[in-house]
Design goal:
This protein has helices spanning 2-16, 20-28, 36-61, 67-71, 75-87, 97-123, 127-135, 139-164, 167-195, 198-206. It is mostly helical and 207 residues long.
Length: 207
């Protein structure tokens, strides 16, 4: 049991640490503290989908997708980074309270799905780690690992939220977010595609 907990902690940290800066940026952009739950929910859904795919691949079909296919997920942060650079957060200047409420709800839903997609995109290449890892566990050990992952999501989100509340960090992101967000998201997407050989595959196909 102890060995399973330690191994699960190691797997989760090693596959999630590179996503920390993205979470910090997302928390720093919140206009209301209650919106943080949309980040939590998106993180849980994204992580859950990745783990679910890994479990199915490990226990049912014994299938590992080709790396270049996983790399296509890098297009998600690239798209979000370009979109943010062009249109920003899409802030509207409407005055009517009812319209503002609708816009805030729309932004909250958009935040949830943005976090979900970013979690899947940044963790897509982790399937090559998750699948063999879960395949090595029995069902009891798998349940322990899933519990560790669930706790890990909370810890990483809280750590990111605390770091984003540091005045120097939050003020810098708020002031330069139109530059920082694309500079983080676009290279992240390119890295995902490069790391999985997607760019190389496309170049070989073209040339």
């Amino acid at each position: 049991m102890g060995q399973t907990i330690i191994s699960a902690i190691g797997v989760y940290i090693s596959t999630s640490i590179d996503y920390l800066i993205v979470l910090i940026i997302l928390f720093a952009q919140l206009s209301q503290n209650k919106q943080k739950w949309h980040i939590y929910a998106g993180q849980y859904l994204g992580t859950g989908l990745l783990v679910g795919v890994s479990l199915v691949a490990a226990y049912v079909v014994n299938f590992v997708p080709e790396a270049w296919m996983v790399g296509l997920l890098g297009l998600i942060p690239i798209y979000l980074g370009i979109r943010f650079a062009i249109v920003g957060e899409g802030e509207e200047e409407e005055e009517e309270e009812e319209i503002i409420e609708r816009l805030e709800q729309s932004k909250a839903n958009q935040l949830f799905w943005t976090v979900t997609l970013l979690t899947i995109a940044s963790g897509g290449d982790n399937l090559s780690i998750y699948i063999p890892y879960f395949a090595s566990l029995d069902w009891a050990q798998t349940l322990v690992a899933l519990l560790v992952f669930a706790i890990g999501v909370i810890i990483f989100c809280e750590l990111s939220r605390v770091l984003s509340s540091i005045p120097l960090i939050s003020e810098t992101i708020e002031k330069y977010e139109r530059i920082i967000v694309p500079l983080v998201f676009i290279p992240l997407g390119l890295y995902i595609m490069y790391e999985n050989g997607t760019i190389e595959t496309f170049l070989n196909f073209i040339l």
